[in-house]
Fold each of these.
Amino acid sequence: MDFQDRFFRSLFLGASALSALVTVAVLCFMVLLCLPVLKLDFIRHVLTAPWSPGQGQFGILPMMAGTICIAFLSLVISFPISLGCSFFIEILKPKGKGNLLKKLVQFMTAIPTVIYGFVGVFLLVPFIREIFAYGSGMCILSASLMLGLLISPTLILFFSQSFSRVPQSYLNAVDALGGTTWQKLYHVILPHAWKGMLTGIVLAFGRAMGDTLIALMISGNAVVMPSSLLDSARTLTAHIALIFAADFDSMEFKILFISGIVLYMMTSLGILFTRGLDRKGPA
Amino acid sequence: MKTNIQIRMENLWFYYHDRVILEDIHAEIEKNAITAISGPSGQGKSTFLMILNRLWENIDGAKVKGKVEIDFGKGFEDVYHESYPVHQLRRRVGMVFQTPNPLPMSIYKNIAFPLTLMGEKNQATLSHRVETALKKAFLWDEVKDRLLENAETLSGGQQQRLCIARALVPEPDILLLDEPTSSLDEASIRVIEALLLELKKSCTIILVSHYMDQIGRIADHRLVLSERKLRPAPDKARDIQNRIEK
Amino acid sequence: MTKSFPDRLLSLFSWICAMFLISSVSIILGFLILKGYKAVNLELIFSDVRPLDALLLRQRVFGGLLPAMTGTVFLIVLSMALAVPLGLASGIFLSEYASSKIKWIFSLTFDILSGIPSIVVGLFGFSITVFLHHYFNERIFPCLLISALSLSFLVLPYIIRTTQISLESLPLSLRLTAPALGATKRQNIFFVLLPSSLSGIISGIVLAMGRCAEDTAVIMLTGAVATAGIPKSIFSGFEALPFYIYYMAAEYSHPSELRKAYGAALLLLIICSALFIFSYWIKNTLKTKHFTGHNSL
């Protein structure tokens, strides 16, 4: 019996170690494959130069800028709406409708991203093109709008969860003192919930940066430094999806992995940051 | 007074996350008797029971220091010795919790569960021992026609007797009961008290209870746990109890 | 009593936001349904081949979505077969065996894994293929197996997390029941804890299936192609619904192809919604009743 117990313990431990190994292996493999070019000079070149493989310039700066731009803008669009929706769900709660909205938001997480991209191509892009009468309509704004919709469930669910965790006794105390809903929100709920909300924002930003399909399908994919909302741009994820160098030793191929490493690092930093917020260190 | 000691605890300390819950406990528990433990709530009465079957080991942050010896008929054994198999101990020291805790399965499977754990597969043996246990717990007549129903469909009192029956299946020498009647109605309480008086012929019973009247009705020995210490119940309380009974 | 001005503003703001979100989602779904419902029929899936013939592989389907749908189904089944055992075992370890320090480290790695963009996971799968192709066997190319393997990495943290949370949320009284009857840790896990948390775990697995069905970024790097027919083996290229939708949105050459793309998008939406609703149903109806937790120290 004791032998069996120890056997299962080792089995489960082995499984966890293997799963953890995957996380490390993803990074190590990418580093390994572009190791030959990983020199300080070259990294500086890659992080600052423009992209023009014909002229021997392999900078991913435009893509990094595109990624940050689109992700940030989608957050700017999504944040106020998500905030309002989570007020609706957790604070106003108009006769069961709050729960209904919450169900809808949960359902949104099940909508495939390719669907957002698809509807973006055939509905949003023509719409933007008509309204602004500029370019193809495949631009930073279109991508950010769709991406904003994509990340709103993450924001809303984190926000409303943080609101609901404020102890009821505090809320009762404000109510008993005759406080208004606004005062309750301002003096009790927000000071209590901001950490959870920030976690949601960081994770949603990570999702926006990591999404491929929406940017790939509706941001136009032009490799230029973004200068206007109606300009086309390319994200790092779309760059990986687009450049399909078959040549194992080509520089384009190695740049894919550098792009991958940059994305990996940025999302991991986000996770580490939320961990720091949580402050649940090893006991 | 106590002639036939079965459990001996010496210099026993219990910690929960560096907080002292029990302090320097010394106790002797008599065989085939009902020992009642009372005291203010939240002072570690449940913990005291869990020390005897080492169930606290399944709770994060709990720690025990000291000596517990139990005589299972072969002289006193140190049940905290490294080589002492904890699963054997728990089959010899049964436990019933405050809230009835039938597992989400049929009545029959609940009772047969301890046997399943021991690897018993013979259907005849299983059904025989299920019947015996249910009869011992005064439950057989009420459930014999519905053995395959989910145990959670039983009433609270029936569930608690089911849990007692289940604890009796491994034929334990000692039975620990943690406020077994606190969530039950008066009629169920009487049935269970009668049951305990019957069981003490074959078992040593340690009962946590905060009903003084219940303790007065069925306990042979009384201990009080308060301020981290376990003491014999003050004689004055017993005098008053005796006077009331007279 | 009339509401104060800030309260009314807050209320107005919330209503506007809620309405905006609801109408955005409605527009997306409505657009898709309106454009796609006419295309969703047997012809969309089987083209002009008789359904029975197609399913029994008597006749190959060229124009229809059958190859893409079978590809997606194969992907789901294969990646679940890889991810579920590993995820369950890891979740059990985290919840039942790991010390708090080990738990902290492991869950950090799993959080990072779940944060890695799916295209990077796809790139990982792709690079493994290239690596194997160059150093081991020239015949190794991106294929169904590599895609399924990469997808399983993608959903692994979900499965670990739902398993861990389902187990950890079991009340202490239930956890102690079997040990008090002499159960070993292994018996407690397999006889009591796992069966009791099954509804949560299964609903998590169904959600993970949805992730496998919808993900496009991973498979576009690891073996999904525009035309492959029904996959013949796990070492061949394959079609998949989401990739088909992506591909058609960019490359359609004829209105009839576009109509099929709408149909495919609606079909994928229906599949993912069905999985979502199924998972929701499992969680809410199969929930075993737990006793209210007691056992204070």
Amino acid sequence: MERRSERFHQARWNEPIICELDSPGERGIDVPRVSNAIREATGDGLSQLPDAVRRSAAPNLPRLGQMQVLKHYLRLSQETLGADFNVDVGQGTCTVKYSPKVNEQFVRSHKVADVHPLQDAETIQGSLSILHETGRFLSVISGMDRFTFQPRSGSQAILAMASMVRAFHESRGQAEQRNEIITSMFSHPSDAAAAHVLGYRIVTLMQDPVTGLPQLEDLQQAVSERTAALFITNPEDTGIFNPHIRKFTDVVHEAGGICCYDQANANGILGITRAKEAGFDTCFFNLHKTFSVPHGCGGPAVGAVGVRDFLAPYLPRPTVEREGDNFSLDYDRPDSIGKVSAYLGVVPAVIRTYAWICSLGPAGVRQVARTAVLNNNYLLHHIKKIPGASAPYAADAHRIEQVRYSWQQLFEETGVTTEDITNRMCDHGMHMWSSHHPFVVPNPMSLEPTESYSQAELDQYLDALRSVAQEAYTDPNVVRSAPHRSCVHKTLSDGLDDPDQWAITWRAYLRKHADNEDLR
Amino acid sequence: MSGHPYIPNSDPAIRDRMLAAIGACDIDELYESIPDSLRFRDELDLPGPLSCEMQLRRHVEELLNRNKSCSDLLNFRGGGCAQHYVPAVCDEVNSRSEFLTAYAGEAYEDHGRFQALFEYASLMGELLDMDVVNVPTFDWNQAAATSIRMAQRITGRHRVLVCEHISPDRLSTIDNYCRSAMTIDTLRCDPQTGMVDLNELRKKIGPDLIGVYFECPNYLGRIEVSGQTVSDAVHQAGGLSIVGTDPIALGVLAPPSQFGADIVCGDLQPLGIHMNQGGGQAGFIATRDEERFVREYPSRLFGLCRTDTAGEWGFGDVLYDDRTSFGAREQGKEFVGTATALWGITAGVYLALMGPAGMQQIGQTILQNQQFTRQRLEAIDGVTIRASGSPHFKEFVVDLSATGVTPTQLNRVLLEDDIQGGIDLSGTLAGHDGCVLVCVTEIHTRDDINRLADAVTRCVSQETDANS
């Protein structure tokens, strides 16, 4: 019988680029104009500007009616496969889960949307109380003492942690000496990259070929009086938990380094194990991952950073303080690293997190982790049986919240790559991601099913994977030439790395390509 | 606990069925790799559950109702985040589930996301008169910091000049982000005109200089009239001109590329995005289409291409492998990850709605409203406007020091009338004690402005009466 997903076809509107839709005379919205009294008092407003600062020609923006703009963008939205539509277990490391609609209504009310970030504390007691209380929730979950919500992503959270590491060592006169940060290969690339921005030399621990984990002996070799900090994920991106993590943090502490825990994704261990007991001094959670804030095509977001008390003086300013029922902002923090981002960060993300935790309660938060792990091991159990698929490292062991699989055997037997499978999965209305670079696991596939998906949905995803894997053996060209039922067909992307051909805006495209082809 | 609405497989019967399928008896078996010494078994000290949505709504709305929003107040506070009118279509598009809940799909199943972000870059490119615009970063703070780091890598030099009239918070971000790679030196402005001090610029320019970062309009609302002179001087020394700007001004103001800027940055928040208590910020960076610039962007850059089917547009990443940290870890340029894509899409929708005429008209309305507000406030005894002979956009500095009223006192009195006054600059910006940064946009009517001016007049005259 034909599978349901084999009858899928995504919207394919063939929408022109909006600049091609320009229709002189149309307009999308009327703009407020001043009253006669103001016009009499100020003139046209423009004549007071020196010629040098006035724009001479109007910007070449398209002209469209309001419904035409709306329709164009709604069609583009239909050509985007959000988590609310597919069985979104295919984006490992990113913890794609249900973002409750009621939380969306909270943050879209004028009590949040139309609040200025620099209002007096007395006018934002609601927001401040939620920031303070959510900080307490995350302290309970992590064992840390204080939280900041200022970083606007996980990568910026890593930067904030690295900045506090630098400030701590500066305070002890060791900033120049301690110029190395140690991370592991299966930690997120930003652990290396964001720390490197501050000038740190990056030491990367490679994984053991059997366990998939970084090895204690390698860490012992790597630490020295140059060690500023350890930045590490656990479980790593393989979904394998490092049981020796406490020894890792002990080794780094003995060398005088700070232990920084990348908990961007903590979905499998909420209420199960904490940063504090593992010996970490600071950690961060991505509210847009574990804590249900929608990903928004890639932000806005929050990387909430928690610290032990000894690092609290270095937190970005301001901090939210409580006295009785009154909440205030403390800017007077002389040892603070200052501002890692504007204002208080993305407050609406914190409000969504607050509501999500309140809805679940203490047992529910733990249930999230337990169910995410159950779902993950359910997928693992079935995927290992698909011909051509495997789960490298830690053979026969259970995994925490995700697995990095490999299609290497399938590739060797059919020539079909993980990229081909990705492209074919979208013909089923599903997303499948390979992994970050470099591909340490050959022909990788990173799946993370979180707690949000029903057993029936997991079965649907498995069915689609089985179908594609089977096709790779029986009809590999169908897979290699995919997608067939997606929004567009296989892209010809060779020019994207060529300065003479790449076109990052429409005007650049016209300049480089208008002579070469009939545009439509 | 059983059956939370957000967790379908938390139902005990379903759980047991799945456990049986994988040959396990208990979920704890799945955690066998976590040593007992690290297991946390205490009750989590969290409230709830409020799994009933109605109860949750009542609880959260009760808290949020303790906020006063700028719909409750008449707002004149800005400083890098301003209250502009948000067209309904902008909210409609960015609340669509497809965009709201998408993340990192491929250019096929997320074709619409790639196209919407390519269009955002294209429309910003028209507004800025530049050929390359990034998928937006976190905010203007980050955009400025990254622009300076890009310039550092392009020039290979190690000292940057930053114009003093910058938001202190932005300067703090730049300092934290850039100081490991360069010295950050301050460029003063003329205290009378508020414009860049060209004599000091000439003294501080040298062969070690990465470039100059200045803003137009700047934190204090001033429109720099010597932008071309500054850019020329920097270029002569082999440096780069890096300029921050407010995109909503660019229907009427010349974009920085037209006075010599090499790298332009700023915030998208004014373009159809609610203030969101600071959560509506999004930083853009733009340059000319030269390889030496494009290779230094940390952000995703989406390029337009064709597919194997005639007439179809496709998209992909430009220079992904060697340039981004996704492709090259610490060997990539700075870092890339989640930032503010939803606001990029929204800004594109806004510019498509506004068109060329809308952008000109909104710039004009803001100029007129701002000039009218200045006139009204300047007429009050003891109140002066700093650098009042220089052109301003949207914001300006009101000096209260001759009135005997402090900014704190004024704002307290205004708040009693449900008016949110400007930012108190005392203690935050050198030489600006007793000053308030006032922000006026297209949302303000004549009545609104008169209400502010009348309230300031009452407050100042009461102080004068009290002292006489």
